[in-house]
Specification:
The protein is of the alpha+beta class and 639 residues long. The chain folds into 4 domains: 180 residues, Succinyl-CoA synthetase domains (Rossmann fold), CATH 3.40.50.261; 167 residues, D-amino Acid Aminotransferase, Chain A, domain 1 (2-Layer Sandwich), CATH 3.30.470.20; 81 residues, Dna Ligase, domain 1 (2-Layer Sandwich); 167 residues, Aminopeptidase (3-Layer(aba) Sandwich). Strand 4, helix 5 and strand 5 form a beta-alpha-beta unit. It is flat and about 90 Å long. 37% of the residues are buried.
Length: 639
């Protein structure tokens, strides 16, 4: 949850203060490569060990830097990172070595570690560092420097503090501070990243899935049966092995016969809603090639299940074709339920030893492909998805797409309380679910406000997609903004005049940075909505309206912008009416906006919609428009 919010998570109270000092003294910086300089080889190597333990990146020294250091350091110095300037280093040697590392483009930050010696005082070494930093050109001062002065020299600490160089008591804490900056920068960058688009064939059958779940709930079931589970996965495009139910060994033979005649082998598994893990009762037989083997397996499985679980209801066995994927990896993927955060997507190493191996990671839905790949990367099993020896790489994108589909399923069917796919086989040809179980229960709300009742991070509000008719009879498709709409907004802004941009943003806007557009496209759907009108023929964006609610869901602030060459087509009016409808649905009492006094067109439309207007007491060039929305009936066409 912290990662999704762009926050830095720490593991202990002392680390909290270290992180606060580091982030308070140093701004974010590009890169993650750390150069280490010390006058003691041992402590420098300890710093490297800590960096690698935290999955940091040790910088390489450029040939030019090595040559520069050769000219100022004694013969026999390390000639690599960490740079050991040798125990007898004086202030001049410190200064020369620090300057060389600060000038090296192969690193992004420098850690300087001082060990007390009889050759040079710690205070002199600190002065050499701060003096060198002060002499560097201003445009070269952005590279952060971290300092560790062992021995508690008060004069050295005072010198470093005066120069606002962050200091740490040990090399381990300094490296951790550096990694805090890297992780915080990565978390913030992830908030602004444009996710990749989903495949065009990403189509789900929500109605079919909902019908399966509602029928099971109406029958008083807490688990979907295996056949319904297979149908549920199929409705969301998740490949799964077909499954058939047999009440006894003779029915199992009848179901297996067509498969065996085709040359396939079959799997027979125990069928009981009371036995979530079939292997607990030795309830799985694979690669059965004859009818006699199927009969024997079914008989044995049913008897064994009754013996080991006399309390369980045994409904027979399941018959499936054996899926032969000899170089596939066994994974687990699914949906878990957290009492605080609601649905959570689970991914990790699968198989019968899943609890023992305990290699899994969690993520809050909704997910896009970038977040899914990040979730996969937080597990150890992600390493064997890559090629090794004679095993080709698995299709990681197919695995990531399964996680996206599970997140969408959790959003569409909140009655799904948990879903386990184990094993999910993955190889170079894609993925297939061999076994799955789904727990269901009536949905419950976790928060106030409208929208999805159980998500901590609100999913894309698909229910607000609709087609409208413009004044000239042309259709337009209206939908909520998505994070991947960066290019759509850039093309739209290119067709909006400078004056219209000024009227919308209250200032001249000449450059649309990625960060600027990310703030428009990456929304918290719990409190914000932005609706775009799109030409269904060309795919061009015609206009956009946005609404942001306060934390109490009492008031909301809106903004709207229409393409300059499309004014007078009724786009603005229709977007405003949908926005008002959304505010009513959200439970807001008042919506308001700020409009420049010179923007007579916008003010006239607001008055026609029933807004009250008044002069902003803090700015005589701005009008404040407000509308009590509950109970308001807005005309569908301009008046």
């Amino acid at each position: 949850a912290f990662n999704r919010a762009g926050l830095l998570r720490v593991g202990a109270l002392d680390e909290l203060f270290t992180a606060a000092e580091t982030l308070g003294r140093l701004g974010t910086f590009p890169g993650r490569r750390l150069a280490i300089l010390s006058n003691g080889g041992g402590v420098g190597r300890l710093a490297v060990d800590q960096l690698l333990a935290l999955r940091g990146t040790l910088a390489e020294l450029s040939p030019a830097t090595v040559a520069q250091l050769d000219s100022v350091l004694p013969e026999g110095w390390s000639r690599s990172n960490p740079v050991d300037i040798v125990v007898d280093a004086d202030g001049e040697r410190y200064a020369a070595a620090i300057d060389a590392l600060m000038s090296d483009s192969e690193n992004d930050a420098v850690l300087v570690v001082n060990v007390p010696t009889a050759f040079t005082s710690s205070a002199d070494a600190a002065q050499a560092l701060t003096r060198t930093l002060g002499l560097r050109p201003r445009h070269h001062r952005d590279k952060p420097v971290f300092a560790v002065w062992l021995g508690n020299d008060d004069r050295a600490t005072a010198t470093l503090n005066a120069a606002r160089v962050p200091t740490y008591p040990t090399e381990a804490e300094a490296v951790r501070g550096f990694q805090h900056l890297v992780r915080y920068r990565d978390a913030q960058a992830a908030l602004m990243e444009t996710p990749p688009s989903l495949p065009e064939d990403f189509v789900v059958d929500t109605a079919a899935a909902r019908a399966l779940v509602e029928a099971a709930l109406a029958a008083g079931q807490q688990w979907l049966d295996p056949i319904a589970t297979h149908q549920l996965l199929t409705a969301y495009g998740i490949p799964s092995a077909p499954v058939m139910q047999a009440r006894d060994a003779h029915e199992a033979m009848d179901l297996a016969q067509p498969l065996l005649e085709q040359g396939a082998t079959v799997a027979v598994k125990v069928f009981s809603a009371d036995i979530p893990h079939k292997s607990d009762v030795d309830g799985v037989r694979l690669n059965l090639g004859t009818l006699q083997a199927v009969h024997a397996a079914a008989t044995s499985i049913i008897a064994r299940a009754h013996e080991k679980r006399p309390d369980a209801r045994i409904d027979g066995v399941l018959v499936q074709p054996t899926i032969v994927r000899p170089k596939a990896r066994e994974l687990i993927a699914g949906i878990a339920d957290d009492p605080t955060f609601g649905p959570v997507i689970v991914f990790g190493r699968g198989g019968t030893a899943v609890e023992v191996i305990d290699d899994k990671a969690l993520a809050l839905p909704p997910l896009d492909l970038r977040l899914s790949h990040e979730l996969i990367g937080r597990t150890r099993v992600s390493r064997i998805l890559k090629a090794y020896r004679d095993v080709p790489a698995a299709d990681e994108r197919a695995v990531a797409l399964i996680l996206v589909k599970l997140a969408q399923l959790a959003a569409d069917i909140p009655e799904i309380r948990s879903l386990d796919i184990n094993p999910l086989l993955a190889d170079r040809d894609g993925v297939i679910a061999l076994d799955a179980r789904v727990a269901i229960a009536p949905s419950r709300k976790l928060h106030k406000g409208r929208g999805h009742p159980r998500f901590a991070v609100f999913p894309y509000p698909k229910e607000w997609e609709r087609t409208i008719t413009l004044s000239d009879g042309a259709p337009a498709f209206v939908r909520p903004v998505r994070p991947e709409d960066d290019a759509l907004f850039r093309a739209f802004f290119a067709r909006v005049t400078d004056d219209d941009l000024r009227l919308r943003f209250f200032q001249s806007v000449k450059h649309f940075s990625h960060e600027f557009i990310a703030r428009l496209t990456q929304l918290d759907y719990a409190r914000s909505i932005a609706l775009v009108a799109i030409d269904p023929r060309s795919g061009d964006m015609l206009g956009a309206v946005r609404l942001h609610a306060d934390a109490d869901y009492d008031r909301g602030e809106y903004g709207i912008l229409i393409r300059s060459d499309l004014k007078g087509h009724g786009i603005g009016w229709r977007l405003m009416t949908i926005m008002i409808e959304y505010a009513q649905w959200l439970g807001l009492n008042i919506i308001e906006g700020q409009v420049l006094r010179e923007n007579s067109t916008m003010l006239a439309m607001c008055q026609s919609l029933g807004f009250k207007t008044r002069l902003d007491p803090d700015d005589s060039t701005v009008m404040v428009v407000t509308l009590p929305v509950q109970g308001v009936k807005v005309p569908e066409v301009p008046v």
